Amino acid sequence: MAAVTATRGRRLSAEERRNQLLDAARTVILERGLSSLTMELLATEAGVSNPLIYKYFDTRLELLQALLTRTLDEFGDLVVRQLAEQDSYADIVRVFVTTNFDQFEKGSIINVLLSQPDIRRAVSDVEGKRAGTYLVRELTRHYGVGAKQAELLVVMGSGASQAAAERYANSSRNRRAVIDDVVRFIVAGIDALANAE
Which of 24, 40, 108, 157 would be a feasible disulfide site paired with 186, CB 3.0-4.6 Å? Predict the structure, then answer.
C-alpha cells in the first residue's frame, strides 16, 4: 500500500515528490525497521518506479540523511514555538527535557536515525549548538552567571536530561513524573551551583 500518492491528473512538484519519498521512507522504517529499507521497497511503498527515486536521492544514505535533516528541522520549529511561551528558566528546562524524552521515545524516527553514525553526520552539531546557545543566554539572564559557568551548567543539565530520557525509554515509570523529577534535579543543581560563590 502506497504511503502517499499523487492526485490523479496532477503531477507532484519536485518538493512534493521529495517529501512523498521521505514520508514513505519514514513509514517503512517505523513499520519494518531501518535495515529493511531498500530503494526497491521504498519505490513500492511510495507507488513510484525505482529510477524515479534516484532522480531525487543518489543513495540510500543520502535519502536517510535528508529524512533526518527534515525531521530535526520540523522538531526544532516545534521547540522554538514552545520556548516562546515560557517565562521561567524551569519552564525552559522542561521544554528541553521533554524534547529529549520525545527523541528517545520508542518509535521515534529521530532516535532511530541518530543511532547511525553515517546518517548522523549529515546534521553535525548545528542544532545542538543553537539550542545550547539559547540555554546559555537564558541561564545568564535568569541567574546572572557568567557565560563560562552557564556553558558548564548547560552541559551538565543536558547530560542528565539525555541519560534520564534514554533510561526512561526502557522503564515502565510514569513519563510525566520522571520529567518532573529531571526538571527539579537540573534546576536544583543550577540553583546550587549558580549561588555557590
Answer: 157
